[in-house]
Amino acid sequence: MIDRSDEIRSTRAPKLNEDQIEVLSRYGETRKTEVGQVLFRAGDTTNDFFVVLEGEVEMIDDFAGEARTIAVFLAGRFLGELNILTGQAMYLSAVVRKGGEVLAISREQLKEVVTEEPNLSDIILKAFLARRSYLMRTGVGLRIIGSRHSGDAARLREFAARNRLPHVWIELEEDPDAEALLEKFGAKPSETPVTIWQGEDVLKNPTNAELARIIGLKVGAPWERTYDLVVIGAGPAGLGASVYGASEGLSTLALESVALGGQAGTSSRIENYLGFPAGLSGFELASRALVQADKFGARTAVPEKAVSLKREDGYYLIGLSEGGEVVARSVIAASGARYRRLDVPRLGLFEGVSVHYAATEAEAQRCEGKEAAVVGGGNSAGQAALFLAGRTPRVYLLIRGDDLGKSMSRYLLDRVTEAENVELLPNTEVRELMGEDRLDGVVVEDNRSGTRRTLGARALFVFIGAEANTGWLEGAVELDERGFVLTGRELDNSALEEDAWRERSREPYPLETSLPGVFAAGDVRSGSIKRCASAVGEGAMAVRLVHQYLADTGV
Ligand SMILES: Cc1cc2nc3c(=O)[nH]c(=O)nc-3n(C[C@H](O)[C@H](O)[C@H](O)COP(=O)(O)OP(=O)(O)OC[C@H]3O[C@@H](n4cnc5c(N)ncnc54)[C@H](O)[C@@H]3O)c2cc1C
Questions:
Q1: Which residue among 169, 353, 386, 487 is buried most deeply as judged by most CB within 10 Å?
Q2: pLDDT cut 90: percent of the chain above it
Q3: What's the gap between Cα 126 and its chain centre?
Q4: 76: CA distance to ligand 1 center in Å?
Q5: Please, which residues bridge with residue 100 across strands?
Q6: How far apart are CA 183 and CA 515, in angstroms?
Q7: Looking at residue 362, what is its pLDDT?
Q8: Is 62's pLDDT higher than 90?
Q9: What is the mean pLDDT of residues 162-188?
Q10: Which of 273, 532, 536, 538 to mutate to test the pocket of ligand 1 (most atoms within 8 A of CB)?
Q11: Interstrand relation of 38-40 and 93-105 (parallel, antiparallel or unpaired)
Q12: Taking Cα atoms as reference points, which of 344, 65, 44, 333 lies closest to residue 184?
């Protein structure tokens, strides 16, 4: 029998052979190490990538004076995490436990390795991704202390989860030591949610941007230059556009307001993405795309929200939420969509606690071993139901209509109906949420007979369609009645009577909005197919059209 735990360990901490180390040594230099030497500290953003050649190095989580060893690396193993490639801060410190020698490779050189050495690149990337998953489960990094009733605490937890930021949630109502911990860091329960980073940086109810800045998650970009292409949103469409834009020679910047990967980043397993027969997580897809975009020279600023768009002298000015603007010759709107909320009393009370709009590892951990209900008949609902079926004793899948086959892909439908612990409830709607501070049950109603039934679900997952993220485009480009961006032939002639069109003798290109040179790709576009592959494809296609626009405009 194959021991999967060994396989997982060897992905997370692979031992490089002599040949592989020989290749890597061309990119770095060897350095002697001594016991107690710190190779990098949690919070560092400029550290090197290290391979242990001789001796031992331990990875430590140090919080409030309590140092915990998370891993020990011996000769042949390399240190580090995805953040070495993204330029974000390290979560653990690396301390030499037994002196010897390391191979040190700078971040820039490591990027060369990723580009030039495909075999090594694969081993390193896989290990980095596996390590991040491990850290997410291990309870290290940022501490978030707050009440389960607090919307701001839910916001910060969502931000941490969507960015796959290793963190520990300390609930005031549940953890008897929470108040003492707050006191130790000079905070009161009334000032929560409080975040503590590296056992020293304490923030009281920070904004996402403030938190991102202090923990080194924020990655900026030079704002003063004029970019050939600015992409708004870094979900599959935006990341696709960034990779194609930069690889085809356009100076490209992507702005992302929350976390790379967009909705896809919240998916625990995407199984229908071409070329990945075993499926891949949204985080893995986004991380790989980010490394690829970076390799071609695309800049990605996170979290950075676009709040407005205006045209001036043939250029586009994109206003930023924290002030300032960035100038572009062309724009791809890839700001996607977000899921709709159920119209049920007291929903807000449970959101972020027992009501979720994504089914990732973070949500699954919160309802492990308890029954869950999933609302929705699309592919995301089906995936969520299957994923949760592996973690909870029973999953109720609620749909308003009578036929799941109308909205769900066949392959998913088959698996959902075959799963023994998934109970499909057709013609069913949620009427009441039971419980005071956590969900104790869900009252549902058969919309034909009016019969009500209480499900013992302790968590509710909602996947009932989407609203467009187009607030920043209002008044700038034409939107359909639901707020999605109109493009190409969907635009009516009145939109094209504006000055910007009169000076050119052509119709809008496919994917082009009512502003020439502003394109829309992915879920934000009216009539789009809500799939990862189509979003990536539209991102690539929009770049092709940007080239055409730039060629005939000459800006
Ligand atoms: C749980 C789940 C599972 C899914 N599983 C699958 C699957 O298995 N297969 C499949 O094909 N599809 C799946 N989908 C659908 C797929 O994820 C989407 O179709 C796809 O993500 C759309 O990509 P996008 O880039 O157009 O938009 P999004 O993924 O919505 O990304 C848009 C990004 O723009 C950012 N943004 C929004 N406004 C601004 C602003 N003003 N400034 C800066 N940034 C902004 C958002 O934060 C977001 O990150 C799933 C969706 C979900 C939610």
A1: 487
A2: 60
A3: 17
A4: 39
A5: 33
A6: 54
A7: 66
A8: no
A9: 90
A10: 532
A11: antiparallel
A12: 65
Alpha helices in 117-175 (DSSP H): 118-138, 151-162
205 pLDDT more than 70: yes
Question: Is the link from the previous residue into 222 a cis peptide, with omega within 30 of 0?
Answer: no
Residue 262 near ligand 1, beta carbon < 6 Å: yes
Cα–Cα distance, 48 to 64 (Å, whole number): 26
Is 337's C-beta closer than 6 angstroms to any atom of ligand 1?
yes
Ligand 1 nearest atom to the CA of residue 463, by list position: 53
Query: For the chain, what is the mean pLDDT?
Result: 90
Rg, Å, the chain Cα set: 25
Return the structure tokens found at 296.
């071609």
Select the more confidently predicted residue: 124 or 155: 124
The pLDDT score that the predictor gives to residue 278 is 83
Q: Per-residue pLDDT averaged across 333-337, rounded?
A: 97
Kindly report whether the peptide bond that precedes residue 193 is cis, defined as omega within 30 degrees of 0: yes
318 compared with 302, residue with greater pLDDT: 318
Ligand 1 binding pocket includes 532 (Cβ within 6 Å): yes
Among 390, 260, 400, which residue's Cα sits nearest to residue 343?
400
Ligand 1 contact via 383 beta carbon (within 6 Å): yes
Q: How far apart (Å, rounded) are the C-alpha atoms in residues 281 and 261?
A: 10
Task: Look at 334 and 378; give whichever has higher pLDDT.
Answer: 334
In which band, very low, low, confident or very high, does the pLDDT at 500 lie, cut at 50, 70 and 90?
confident
Is residue 207 classed as helix, strand or coil in its secondary structure? Answer: coil
Percent of the chain with pLDDT over 70: 97
CA atoms of 527 and 550, how far apart (whole Å)? 26
- Of residues 44 and 513, which shows the higher confidence score? 513
162 lines ligand 1 (CB under 6 A): no
The dihedral built from the CA positions of residue 63, 66, 70 and 74, taken in this order, carries a sign that is: positive
- Asked whether the beta carbons of 163 and 219 are under 8 A apart, the reply is no
Placement of tokens 């390391």 in the chain: 102
- For helices 532-553 and 236-247, angle between their N-to-C axes, nearest 10 degrees: 40
Q: Is the shortest distance between the CB of 266 and ligand 1 below 6 Å?
A: yes
Compute the C-alpha angle 510/491/472, nearest 5°.
Answer: 90
Instruction: Quote the pLDDT of residue 1.
Output: 36
**Strand spans (E) along 364-410:** 372-375, 395-398
pTM, two decimals, is 0.81
Q: Which two structure tokens, joined as six digits, stand for 369? A: 């071993």
Closest protein CA for atom 4 of ligand 1 = 380
Question: To which H or E segment does residue 542 belong?
Answer: helix 532-553
Backbone angles phi, psi at 553, to 5 degrees: -100, -40
Among 534, 504, 530, 535, residue whose Cα is nearest residue 517? 504
CB 178 within 8 A of CB 64: no
pLDDT for 80-135, tens place per residue?
Answer: 988 888 888 898 999 999 999 999 999 999 999 998 999 999 999 999 999 998 89
Q: Whose CA is nearest to atom 10 of ligand 1?
A: 531
The answer to whether residues 473 and 465 touch, using CB atoms and an 8 Å cutoff, is: no
The alpha carbon of 502 and the centre of ligand 1 are apart by a number of angstroms equal to 34
